[in-house]
Predict the 3D structure of the following.
Amino acid sequence: MRFEILGTIRAIETIAVGTGIREIARLRKMYGHARWRKRKGIAEIRLLAGGTIVTAEIHWYEASNLGKKEFKIKRFL
């Protein structure tokens, strides 16, 4: 599902770091070696399909020198 993040992400938590991430090999192959973290937070998002604005829990991967990658919606709140 495609979406756009509106404003800032709040209540950010780290879920996993380094080898604790199941997708670590794929991340390193696609984006390079870095200290990867899997994170989650809550944000207002706009669904691109219908333009609906909702609050959702989102997850993403992040590395300090590469930034945030691969956002996904986990659940609507």
Observations:
- The mean pLDDT is 94.
- The chain has one domain: 3-76.
- The radius of gyration is 13 Å.
- The first helix runs from residue 24 to 31.
